[in-house]
Amino acid sequence: MKKLTAGVLVLVLSSSLAVANAQQKKSDTVRTQDIEGVVVTALGIKREKKALGYAAQEVKGDIISDAGQTNAVSALSGNVAGVQVTAPSTMGGSTRITMRGISSIGGENRPLIVVDGVPLDNSNVNDSDTQRGAGGRDYGDASFDINPDDIESVTILKGGPAAALYGSRAGNGAIIYTTKSAKKGKTDVQFNTGVAFESIYIRPKLQNQYGGGYSDTLPTATINGQTYNIQEYETDASWGPKYDSNLMYLPWYAFDPEFSNDYLKAVPWVAPKNDVDSFFNTGVTYTNNLSVAKSFGDTNIRLSYTNTNISGIVPTSKIKKDNFSINLNSKLSENLKAEAIMNYVHTEGFNRPEVGYGDNSVAQKFYQFGQRNLDFSKLKDYKLADGSQRTWNRTAWDDATPLYSDNPYWTINENTSADSRQRFFGNAGLTYNFDKHFYVVGKVYGDVYSQNISSRVAVGSQAISNFTLQKRNVSEFNYEGRAHYNNNFGDFSLNSFAGFNYRDNKLSWLNGTTVGGLVIPGLYNLNNGVENSLASNYESHAAVKSIFGSVSIGYKDLLFLEATGRNDWYSMLNKSGFYPSVTGSFVFSNVLKNNWLSFGKVRAGWSSIAQGTTPYARETYVTFGSPFNGAPQYSNPNTAANPDIKPELKITQEVGLEARFLKNRLGFDVTYYQTKSKDLILAVPIDPATGYLFKTINAGEMTNKGIEAMVTVTPVRNENFSWDVTWNFARNRNKLVNLYQDLQNQVLTNAPFRAQLVAQVGQAYGAIFGTDYVYDANGNKVVDENGFYKASEIKSLGSILPDYNMGFRNTIKYKSLSLSFLIDIQKGGKYFSTTHMWGMYSGMLEESALGGNREAGVILDGVKEDGTKNDILLDAPTWGGTYYNTVDAQNVFDASYIKLRDITLGYDLPKSLIGNKIQGIRVSAFARNLFAWNLANKGIDPENTSYGSGNVQGLEGGSLPSTRTYGVNVNFKF
User: Which of 320, 631, 709, 923 is deepest in the core (most CB within 10 A)?
Assistant: First the structure.
């Protein structure tokens, strides 16, 4: 490959080009080897892209770091064709990422994440209730530990043919992160500092015309001989009287003598001056990174430290993260090279906000059940001098006991959580070159971390006081050896290697929780429970032994054929698995040598990969129940294991076409793929007389078919100005072909109250099941004798999977000034909203105000069962109640969106201004999720309907507002 000059143009999002040649030379001919780059592929092996027979896309680290990203996985959203990322705004929350659809019903559907060759554990500890929207804290994924400031590039291996060398764990593709390293002969010192601000953006629109209660008049009470209007303090709904400044009443905070300015003082029945929005803070994130890269002869070392401090939109919530990394490589002799990379990450979180329908979910209290007359400046005085709570939701005017809801400021100050994670990951290895063709590599990869989580419910809360503690330890070590042989034989080239891998995984966790409440307020210890605390623990140990190999043969840089194979022996399964792949590519631009064709290639690939199951899946083990009257309880589990269980098998076929034209000014990359997943691992119902309700078996088949496309255009490029446009598009069609015998569906989970998430035969994965409208022959909605919409039988209301995703990135550069922005688009998919259901039921949402004329009631648009037009009048609270107990389709929404995902404006200060002591200063301003359009429900962000990165998606249980972020970075190079 010719040495590229300073005229190189980096096309960061092209799946068929890593580096585009912009050399100034006399000849107009651009050769393939000038424009085809080198990318990191499976097992960290660098390959020329022209030789690859599968789809692999590269994203440069600048795309991630320049936009002020704190999560290296969510940063891929909209940037990669065929990759769907769901990144809710919850502080440090989970990021769901899938490639080419869903292939398993209950197994893993996320890709493997690899950092510098280390397969990184990306566990999500959110429990099942949290994930289905039933309440809990989102502690995020372990991939949050990846430091965006250290990333050099990301390679996305989208399918089986690309990731087959990783065997069973990469059946869903792989994301390969390569971190920065020192360059031989160079010294590089950089300091990067940035600040970002986060403000609430998309949130439910609340009505502002009626106050709390169920009656259209205020009740009265005689206190100290005087009669006052009071409110329905015990009611957590807002069907009360219309606001009237002449109507005086005693608010919830008028009954505490120690607050003398408010004691028994009536106030007007009006909308609050400080409403829900005033509760939220402007979140602030500070990021500082210092890196030093130095070359000492044949030794290169890079040291990096990054400190990240995040304060969330919910007061008291915060995360602190410290990343240390060392990247070292040294040439020990003419033939021997050593390298080592070590990362240490320490993450401390405090009071990550609860999400979903839970006791400590402020979103549930703000948007689903509450009173719209509450002034948040008064709620801030949430505690009396004796430590007891002051809440608006009093049991009665003379009983301050919280009935349903705590004061939100009590929630965020007293019912808190804390979490911490300490993690080491990295690798060390030796490479010995016998000659220029043959070398061997030996490496050890390690990933070890411990995580502690504690949560508190204070004495005096609406719920029973509690203290819970969880400790979790995870480790994985991979021991790998490879022998490589590469050579040219006339017109033929050979690239080959063979190796082995031994993987060792360990997991242990310990849970403890108090029972019956806490004895001493403010003392959070497992020994402070009213009854003996409960504890449970779990340990697992699994291993996989593997051998693998690859052979790639090239002919005249024109034809390439590659075959790989890997055999895995699992400690948790009886049978081993052999996973082959075959790929080929034809570089037709080396035959059609025309000036207008810069590069062209067709490719095809096939693979057969499986994914293993969980440890101990072959055996059935006794379960331990909570002690009863001091005696332990033992029982069979609900599901019987299967000693003959096999891995799920996924067969992939793909073809692709890449081309570049007009000196690389125009290009495209298109891939068509289809996958078949069979031997799905299912828990099917069996006769309870066996002692079990379900048994684990291999059955079922699921298919995915889709197309990915990438188009790159450079409309303008000259010495001072360039404009690059990249468009990516992905469309996937998923179908569950069959399950087991006549079994037609598998329930994945239930929403907190209504609707289910189901795998339904003949439909796309993740169908939302609930009741629909009933229509007559003319398409009119039918109402019953009460004037309510009639509900159909339980049926599919649509899948959570989108029709397609696409992204547009524009990058404009003028001298030292650059502008880049990304439009991210999703079309289709569905989600169920618990917030909409209860917000309408309780009269909280704007729509429930009926334009300020609730008194007129509602006649639902439809016809009676006899076909006549509906004329049955419903009062407003009754109408609102029908959003819960009749037609679920009222609360199912399209998940489409158009988002300005990120925009970055950067400027390199001129040398005349910064002098010679500093090599460069770059100032960049950025914004993320700045605008969103095309939302079916204007008050809910479709990406905010996820509370975990697993298979349970699309069930919105009570989400915080989504946020927009804006900030500035300054990079100093010394």
Answer: 709
C-alpha distances out from residue 530 to 28, 401, 510, 972, Å: 83, 20, 21, 58
Q: Given this model, what pLDDT does residue 17 score?
A: 28
The identity of residue 47, as a single letter, is R
Query: Concatenated DSSP letters for 632-668?
Result: EEEE--SEE--TT---EEEEEEEEEEEEEETTTTEEE
The pair of structure tokens assigned to 580 is 């082959």
Closest CA to 770 of 857, 885, 657: 885
Contact yes or no for 80/55 (Cβ under 8 A):
no
pLDDT for position 90: 66
Give yes or no for a contact between 613 and 645, defined as CB atoms under 8 angstroms apart: yes
* Greatest CA separation for the chain: 108
Burial 803-814 (b: 16+ CB within 10 A, else e): ebbbbbbbbbbe
pLDDT lower than 70: segments of the chain? 1-36, 89-90, 612
Determine the Cα–Cα distance for residues 890 and 830; give it in Å rounded to an integer.
12
* Helices (H) then strands (E): counts for the chain: 10, 52
Please give the structure tokens belonging to residue 638. 């609900």
763 phi, psi to nearest 5 deg = -125, 170
Nearest to 62 by CA among 729, 717, 969: 969
pLDDT at position 612, please? 67
Residues whose CB falls within 8 Å of the CB of residue 915, separated by 6 or more in sequence, listed in order: none
Half-sphere exposure of 817 (CA within 13 A, CB side): 2
Q: In three state form, how does the secondary structure of 690-747 look? A: HCCCEEEEECCEEEEEEEEEEEEEEEEECCCEEEEEEEEEEEEEEEEEECCCCCCEEE
For 969, the token pair is 């970075």
How deeply is 596 buried, as exposed, middle or buried, from its count of CB atoms within 10 A (0-12, 13-18, 19+)? exposed
Are β-strands 112-115 and 174-179 bridged in parallel, bridged antiparallel, or unpaired?
parallel
Cβ of 553: how many Cβ atoms within 10 Å?
A: 17
Q: Residue 169, SS3?
A: helix
CA atoms within 13 A on the CB side of 669: 28
Residue 343 and residue 335 in contact, taking contact as beta carbons nearer than 8 Å: no
Taking Cα atoms as reference points, which of 767, 749, 648 lies closest to residue 696? 648
Dist CA 45 CA 66 (whole Å): 27
The one-letter code for the residue type at 713 is V
Q: How far is CA 213 from CA 546, 842, 880, in A?
A: 66, 9, 14
CA distances from 729 to 207, 374, 710, 929, 971 (A): 39, 46, 6, 20, 33
CB half-sphere exposure, 232, CA atoms < 13 A: 19
Coil, helix or strand at residue 348: strand
- The dihedral region occupied by 867, where left means phi > 0, alpha psi between -120 and 50, and beta the remainder, is left
What share of residues in the chain are helix, strand, coil (percent, to 5)?
10, 50, 40
Return the structure tokens found at 338: 């050593």
Query: Which pLDDT score, from 0 to 100, does residue 611 have?
Result: 77
